Amino acid sequence: MAQRRQFSGAFKAEAAGTTERLPLFCCILGVLAILADARAQDYYIDPANGSDSNDGNASAPWKSFRNAISYYQPDYRPAGWIELKPGDCIYLMNGSYSEMLHPGEWNKGPMGGGSFVAYFRGRRADKDSPFRIRAYPGHKPIIDPKGQGFGLSVFQSGGWEVEGIEVANAYGRGISLNESKEIKVHNVHIHDTDGVDNNNIAGLYITDCWNGGTNTAMTQALWKWIRCLPMLRMATLDPGRALPVPIWAGTPVMASLETPGLNFLRLDAKNI
C-alpha cells in the first residue's frame, strides 16, 4: 500500500505540473497560429482555365487580378477579394491577361479611376519580403490590355518585384511605377504600347521613385534584357537637367539606374 500511495502522490504532482504548464502551452499554440496566418501565401491566375470565384490556389486559380488589386473604397471590392501581405506571390500562368479592371474613384464610383489589367496602390512591404508578380515556372504570360488601358500600375507603394512577364498592346503605359520605392522589375518584355504623344506614352514609365530614402530612381530596380524593338525613340532621364539618351533598336538595357538626383525615367516609345 505504501508503494501505491507513493506512486499516486507522484502522479498527482506530475498532473499538477502539467496543469500549471497548460496556459503557457496554449499561449505557444496561439503564437504559432498567428505566425502561420501571417505566413506568405502564393496565389495563381490562369486566364484560360481559372475563375474569379475560386480561392486562387494552385488547384483553383483565379481568372484575373480582380481579387487582388487595390480599390478606392472597401465596398468596391469583390466578395473574393484578399489583402496581399508582404512576401505574397502572384504566379501568372500561360495566356493573355486582357480583362480591364477599375479601382474606382470618389466622384465616378466603382467604374472610375482608370483602366488597368493590374493596379496596386498603397501596398508596402520590406525589400527583403516584397510582394511578387511572377511568371509561373515554364510559363509565358502576356499582359495584353488590347489598347484599352494600362498594363500594370504600382502607385504610392514599396517593396515589389515583377519578373518574367510580357506586356503588349497597352494604351498609355505598359508598366507604370509612381511615387514608390524598392521596386525590382526584371526579365520583362514590353512592346507595342500606343496612345497620345502629349500624354507621355511609355512602355515603362517611372516617376518619383526612390530607394532607401535617397532621391535616386530605382537604385534596386534592374531592367535586365528589356528588349528594345523598332520604333523606340529614346529614354529621357530627368528632363531639363539631363540630355536625352538614345537607345537603338535591338539594344538590351541592363542598368541599375543609380544616378544621383534622378527622379524621372521615361522610355518614350511605342515599343520597348
Give the assembly state of these chains: single chain
Helix-strand pattern: HEEEEEEEEEEEEEEEEE
The total beta strand count reads 17
Q: Helix content range of the residues, please?
A: 10-25%
Class based on secondary structure composition and strand pairing: alpha/beta
Folded structure, characterized:
Strands 4-7-10-13-17-15 form a six-stranded mixed beta sheet, with no helix packed on it. A five-stranded parallel beta sheet has the order 1-2-5-8-11, with no helix packed on it. The relative contact order is 0.10. It contains one helix and 17 strands. The protein starts with a helix and ends with a strand. It has two domains: 1-39; 42-269, no CATH class. The chain is α/β, with parallel strands linked by helices. The protein has one helix at residues 2-38, and strands at residues 42-45, 89-92, 95-97, 116-121, 131-135, 141-143, 150-155, 158-163, 166-168, 173-178, 181-186, 189-191, 202-207, 226-227, 232-237, 252-253, 264-269.
